[in-house]
Amino acid sequence: MARLPLPSTPAGMTYTGGVMTSCVSEQLDHGVLLVGYNDSAAVPYWVIKNSWTTQWGEDGYIRIAKGSNQCLVKEEASSAVVGGPGPTPEPTTTTTTSAPGPSPSYFVQMSCTDAACIVGCENVTLPTGQCLLTTSGVSAIVTCGAETLTEEVFLTSTHCSGPSVRSSVPLNKCNRLLRGSVEFFCGSSSSGRLADVDRQRRYQPYHSRHRRL
């Protein structure tokens, strides 16, 4: 479709039908809409829709001859180019991430007299992330992981300062010692097993595998 300015000439105002071949003017003062054409007619023509109701022309339309620049259609027509559809936006995805749970605030060391963590056991509950005094006279800081317990032992200090040695042991697994055995638990993971130990002591010296230098 194209928009056309047409002259409001007496011939245009009195048009009642047929193909107009005498629309000649240099002054354009009326806008109409070009909606079609016919190249197979004896006189090829443009089909133009006017805005003067269906009582004018051919039910509100007028036909003008093609190829002879009637009503300056070749020079003064204007049209718009419609582009394709815009890009389809990518689907939005929402990812829900659960915050990690708090680290256990304590761990349990279960020491037994046999080699299988069954006989003569006693457990000690101790805080994690704090400076602990060990049974060998040094200090250590213990942290709980998902599967291991990590201890940082300060070999020359009782206040967790100076040179240190870091090591890890598996949780919920019996570890054989030179004399007896030991097993570590963190947080609530210890609840089932601790019911079988002989007695419980809280905040006693930590039994580290490392000795004072």
Can you describe what's shown?
With 213 residues, the chain is mainly β. The protein has 2 domains: 75 residues, OB fold (Dihydrolipoamide Acetyltransferase, E2P); 97 residues, no CATH class. Helices cover 6% and strands 34% of the residues. The chain is built from 3 helices and 14 strands. The strands form 3 sheets. It has a 5-stranded mixed sheet with strand order 1-3-4-5-2, with no helix packed on it. The longest helix has 4 residues. The protein is rod-shaped, with a radius of gyration of 48 Å. The two termini are 96 Å apart.
How many domains, in number, for the residues? 2
Treating each run of at least 4 consecutive H or I residues as one helix, how many helices? 3
The count of strands amounts to: 14
Structural class: mainly beta
The residue ranges in which pLDDT falls below 50 over 5 or more consecutive positions are: 189-204
Give the amount of beta strand, in percent: 25-35%
Cα Rg: 48 Å
What is the percent of helical residues? Answer: under 10%
Strand order within the widest sheet?
1-3-4-5-2
Biggest pleated-sheet summary: 5 strands, mixed
Keywords: Disulfide bond
Protein name: Putative cysteine peptidase
Organism: Trypanosoma cruzi
GO biological process, one term: proteolysis
